[in-house]
């Protein structure tokens, strides 16, 4: 039995395996089989190895504080901490915050050695015991905290949006390609189990030709925002309702359909003219301020390559309207419907239903329903089994396995940024636009 421990190793110049053996096993005539999956010149040679061996990926997380409500704590660390579902694949090797004091507090909270608590992104990037740098901070800071890791030729995982705008995303993608590193972007809704199931069903041809698809979502929780999200009211921050919740869901929809939009037309309006910010300590709201970003987003487009129309509408409502998510795919032979209580589907999983065209039956007239007509029935969707909030664990699981299917790299994230820019341009100019 192979008992050696495999340690994830960053790519160096020239061909190399993606691991090093830290302890030489006693082979005793047994030859293990390593199956290599060679993807491209910019990825690793990824081995598939015996279950008795373990590959440990050493993380350096920028933005990991002692604040238990922070996203890095809620969604990232829960997956890889001791006792977490991926603890045998990952090690929290280092972290970084904005100052030495908070970094020290975070290190004590997470059990990281004091000399691995940094306050500069360059220190994490240049740490030889860090394999994968994770950037989980406010969107406007993504570029400045990611570039040092790319320059150090480290693999990088950045939350979505990749940059505050298209130009920043393109710059980072260009640098990553030049450096030959693996990149990952947190568009994890596409890995949610129901969306994975939809992709499988669509690919099987069970729906027949796709006639159209419609997405509708409402939310009454974001009329006002927490004080720490005040920056999101600045359009230049890149952290808007369009760029974050809308794009997370629209990306998952397009990925499940194996499609993009060949053209689109959009309307962006501000339904609620003011916004207040909520104190984390008292719960009190600030004085209302003018809202500077859209909260009612309507998009129509043509799917490629099918040519089917897409209709997408998301709006922030008052408490008079319950939050909801509904996605319908109309096919010639069968249709699918996804329903949930939250538009943020990676956090609150929706259920999936299917209806199939009736076989036989008589139609009495144009206004009469066909006997034995189609009815929605729920489809069982097995979960990932990881049990971690937010869907980020599914990204880590795939990275740990050396899989790329369903993951978003910097270059694909640039396509999403182009889509967001096209939506804004269409609304601004009042015309149909293209982004591909």
**Average pLDDT metric:** 87
**SS class:** alpha/beta
Strand proportion: 25-35%
Number of strands: 22
Biggest β-sheet, characterized?
8 strands, mixed
- What is the general shape? globular
Low-confidence stretches: 1-53
How much helical structure, as a percent, in the residues? 10-25%
Characterise this structure.
With 436 residues, the protein is of the alpha/beta class. 25% of the residues lie in helices and 26% in strands. It has 9 helices and 22 strands. It has helices at 71-80, 100-110, 121-125, 142-151, 166-179, 193-204, 242-256, 392-401, 410-429; strands at residues 5-8, 19-21, 35-38, 45-48, 54-62, 90-96, 117-118, 132-135, 155-159, 183-186, 210-219, 225-226, 260-269, 274-275, 277-278, 289-290, 296-304, 309-316, 324-331, 334-340, 351-356, 377-379. The strands form 5 sheets. Strands 1, 2, 5, 6, 7, 8, 9 and 10 form an 8-stranded mixed sheet that branches. An 8-stranded mixed sheet has the order 13-17-18-11-19-20-21-22. Helix 5 (166-179) links the parallel strand 9 (155-159) and strand 10. The longest helix has 20 residues, at 410-429. The chain is globular and about 70 Å long. The N and C termini lie far apart (51 Å). 39% of the residues are buried. The model is unreliable at 1-53 (pLDDT under 50).
Blueprint (SSEs and pairs):
Blueprint: E1 5-8, E2 19-21, E3 35-38, E4 45-48, E5 54-62, H1 71-80, E6 90-96, H2 100-110, E7 117-118, H3 121-125, E8 132-135, H4 142-151, E9 155-159, H5 166-179, E10 183-186, H6 193-204, E11 210-219, E12 225-226, H7 242-256, E13 260-269, E14 274-275, E15 277-278, E16 289-290, E17 296-304, E18 309-316, E19 324-331, E20 334-340, E21 351-356, E22 377-379, H8 392-401, H9 410-429
Parallel strand pairs: 1-5, 5-6, 5-8, 6-7, 8-9, 9-10, 11-18, 12-15
Antiparallel strand pairs: 1-2, 3-4, 11-19, 13-17, 14-16, 17-18, 19-20, 20-21, 21-22
Helix pairs in contact: 4-5, 5-9, 6-7
């Amino acid at each position: 039995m192979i008992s050696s421990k495999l340690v994830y190793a960053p790519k160096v110049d020239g061909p190399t395996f993606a691991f090093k053996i830290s302890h030489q096993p006693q082979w005793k005539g047994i030859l293990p089989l390593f199956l290599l999956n060679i993807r491209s010149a910019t990825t690793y040679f990824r081995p598939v190895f015996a279950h008795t061996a373990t590959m440990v990926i050493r993380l350096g997380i920028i933005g990991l504080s002692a604040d238990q409500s922070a996203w890095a704590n809620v969604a990232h660390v829960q997956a890889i901490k001791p006792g977490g579902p991926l603890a045998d694949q990952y090690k929290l090797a280092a972290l970084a915050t904005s100052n030495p004091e908070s970094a020290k507090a975070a290190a004590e909270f997470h059990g990281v050695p004091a000399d691995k608590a940094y306050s500069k992104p360059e220190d994490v990037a240049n740490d030889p015991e860090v394999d994968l740098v994770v950037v989980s901070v406010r969107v406007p800071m993504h570029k400045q905290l990611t570039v040092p890791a790319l320059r150090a030729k480290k693999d990088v995982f950045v939350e979505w949006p990749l940059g505050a705008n298209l130009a920043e995303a393109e710059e980072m993608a260009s640098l990553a390609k030049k450096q030959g590193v693996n990149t990952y972007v947190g568009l994890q809704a596409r890995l949610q189990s129901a969306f994975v199931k939809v992709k499988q069903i669509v690919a099987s041809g069970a729906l027949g030709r796709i006639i159209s698809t419609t997405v509708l979502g409402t939310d009454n929780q974001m009329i006002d925002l927490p004080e720490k999200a005040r920056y999101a009211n600045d359009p230049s921050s890149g952290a808007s309702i369009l760029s974050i919740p809308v794009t997370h869901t629209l990306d998952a929809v397009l990925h499940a359909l194996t499609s993009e939009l060949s053209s689109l037309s959009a309307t962006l309006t501000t339904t609620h003219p003011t916004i207040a910010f909520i104190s984390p300590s008292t719960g009190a709201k600030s004085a209302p301020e003018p809202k500077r970003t859209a909260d009612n987003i309507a998009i129509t487009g043509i799917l490629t390559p099918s040519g089917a129309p897409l209709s997408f509408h998301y709006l922030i409502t008052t408490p008079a309207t319950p939050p909801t998510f509904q996605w319908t795919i109309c096919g010639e032979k069968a249709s699918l419907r996804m329903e949930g209580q939250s538009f943020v589907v990676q956090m609150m999983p929706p259920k999936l239903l299917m209806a199939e065209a009736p076989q036989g039956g008589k139609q009495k007239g144009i206004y009469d329903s066909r006997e034995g007509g189609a009815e929605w029935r729920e489809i069982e969707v097995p979960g990932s089994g990881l049990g971690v909030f937010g869907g980020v664990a599914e990204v880590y699981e795939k990275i740990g396995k050396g899989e790329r299917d369903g993951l978003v790299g910097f270059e694909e994230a640039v396509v999403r940024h182009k889509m967001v820019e096209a939506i804004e341009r269409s609304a601004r100019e009042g015309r149909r636009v293209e982004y591909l």
